[in-house]
Design brief:
The complex is a heterodimer of chains A (about 190) and B (about 280).
Chain A: E1 6-12, H1 17-26, E2 33-39, H2 49-57, E3 61-63, E4 74-77, E5 83-86, E6 92-95, H3 107-118, E7 122-126, H4 135-143, E8 147-151, H5 160-168, E9 173-175, H6 177-185
Parallel strand pairs in A: 1-2, 1-7, 2-4, 3-4, 7-8, 8-9
Antiparallel strand pairs in A: 5-6
Helix pairs in contact in A: 1-6, 3-4, 4-5
Chain B: H1 12-26, H2 35-49, H3 53-62, H4 66-74, H5 85-99, E1 105-110, H6 116-127, E2 134-140, H7 143-151, E3 153-155, H8 156-167, E4 179-182, E5 185-188, H9 190-193, E6 196-200, E7 212-217, H10 226-239, E8 240-248, E9 263-267, E10 272-275
Helix pairs in contact in B: 1-3
The chains are: A alpha/beta (about 190), B alpha/beta (about 280).
Pfam family, one (chain B): CheR
Organism (chain B): Sphingobacterium alkalisoli
Protein name (chain B): Protein-glutamate O-methyltransferase CheR
């Protein structure tokens, strides 16, 4: 078990699921980063998403659990119904306070929290979605010296989320789906 | 106090200062709280009050009554009646048959916030004809939350979502049998309000105060660091009678805590445990 040196965040909502699968499929076998995926999904229904993806991609894909160390070469999914945060000692922390942007987990919450702890070793991707979650988070990633990447609204199934983040961001790269996949192929 | 236009973001170092100050002036120790979550709550309060760090420290030191307000606002009081209907279903079908065997039942809803969990337990006990021999203690760190809990009054908007939860538990009665609605609020029936004693209790510093057959503490431990979690779990262990039950939130596991050797897992995904030694 080694603590992750870098953190890669993926925030997506409606219309982002199949792209996220393609991104995760492209990740090389051994990386010194942890990947954290936040998708808005309903807490009322339990899903086997982590388990089935784990089998499909043949690598550990685990729910982010409270007070557990963030390890490299691991893909984490935020649990539905809880906000996901990162402690200064680089462990996860869950929080069930009010939804943000009608969402829990909220992309803003994990982006801001991860950005503050991992600073320039934090890269955040914001994808398709139907609300404004993530726009504030992208700004906070930039403020702490991290890298922000937004899906090209023309490539997004629902462009509300990427478009609204592009409006408020100062330095985000806007990438096509193909370029996003290429990025994931070259993660170290 | 200065009213700021732009929110000022605090750092983890600023948070340490605030925690230190609270311990010095109010003897409240928040040092075992999850830092990321606590910082968000303090930030939220500062944004709401349009305070900067100097204002906040000044208020803690010099403003009468601010401290109680601070505790109320930084503790998360998000709760629901019959939250996680599956949990209540399991409680009724798996745990209550054990509880039937006790002549008297004492139950602790720890970190009860505004009382919804304690009243849910009370209703569930009534449904299984156990309420007559049960007494429930609801405790919370926030006096404000305890005061709200005592009233047992909830808005109809909330009651509507609680009804959805209730209907998924699989009980015979209707949820509306358990409250009286008036205008846009509902009051929980007298029999339930009389079966619960709400009081102030701080899991960080207070200790065992009774012996219980069932302790529910759901979605509280996530706000504590590992060390404080250990302390609190020990208080629960000491407070449980042998073969008593401990119920944690769906994301709060005993796994990786040493004390788990003293418990048997009753339901792994719902985190229901039984003290066996």
């Amino acid at each position: 078990m080694t603590k992750a040196e870098n953190i890669i965040l993926i925030g997506g909502s409606a219309g982002s699921y199949s792209l996220i699968i393609s991104m995760l499929e492209s990740i090389p076998v051994n990386i010194s980063s942890a990947v954290i995926v936040v998708i808005h999904r309903n807490a009322k229904y339990s899903t086997q998403m982590e388990k089935s993806l784990s089998l499909k991609l043949k690598r550990p894909i685990v729910p982010a659990e409270d007070k557990v160390m963030i390890e490299n070469n691991t893909i984490y999914f935020a649990a539905p119904g809880y906000h996901l945060l990162i402690e200064p000692d680089r462990t996860f922390s869950l929080d069930i306070s009010d939804p943000v942007n009608f969402s829990r987990p909220s992309i803003d919450v994990i982006f801001e929290s991860a950005a503050e702890v991992y600073t320039n070793r934090c890269t955040a991707f914001l994808l398709s979605g139907a609300n404004n979650d993530g726009a504030y988070g992208i700004k906070r990633v930039e403020y702490f010296g991290g890298t922000s990447i937004i899906q090209d609204p023309l490539d997004a199934i629902i462009d509300t989320m990427p478009s609204s983040a592009i409006t408020t961001s100062s330095k985000a790269k806007v990438l096509k789906n193909k370029e996003i996949i290429n990025y994931f192929c070259s993660i170290k | 106090m200065a009213k700021l236009n732009d929110p000022v973001h605090i750092t983890f170092e600023d948070l340490e200062d605030v925690v230190y100050l609270l311990k010095k002036v109010a003897d409240y120790d928040l040092s075992g709280y999850s830092k990321s979550s606590l910082k968000r709550r303090v930030q939220r309060l500062m944004d709401m009050e349009r305070m900067d760090l100097v204002d906040l420290k000044n208020a803690i030191l010099n403003v009468e009554g601010f401290f109680g307000y601070f505790i109320q606002e930084i503790t998360v009081n998000v709760t629901e009646m019959f939250r996680d209907p599956l949990f209540y279903h399991e409680l009724k079908n798996v745990v209550f048959p054990y509880l039937q065997t006790y002549p008297q039942l004492r139950i602790w809803s720890a970190g009860c916030a505004t009382g919804e969990e304690a009243y849910s337990l009370s209703i569930l006990l009534q449904e299984e004809n156990l309420l007559g021999r049960s007494f429930i203690y609801g405790t919370d760190i926030s006096q404000q939350a305890v005061n709200t809990a005592k009233k047992g009054v909830y808005t109809m908007a909330k009651i509507k979502s609680y009804t959805e939860n209730y209907n998924r538990v699989g009980l015979n009665s209707k949820f509306s049998d358990h409250y009286t609605a008036m205008y846009d609020a509902a009051i929980i029936n007298n029999e339930y309000r009389n079966s619960v004693l709400f009081s102030n209790h701080n899991l960080v510093s207070d200790n065992v105060f009774n012996e219980f057959q069932l302790i529910c503490c759901r979605n509280v431990l996530i706000y504590f660091d590992r060390e404080l979690q250990r302390r609190v779990l020990n208080v629960f262990y000491e407070s449980l009678s042998l073969f008593g039950f401990l119920c944690l939130g769906t994301k709060e596991s005993l796994y990786s805590q040493e004390i788990n050797a003293n418990f048997k897992v009753i339901n792994k995904s719902l985190n229901i445990y039984q003290k066996i030694r």
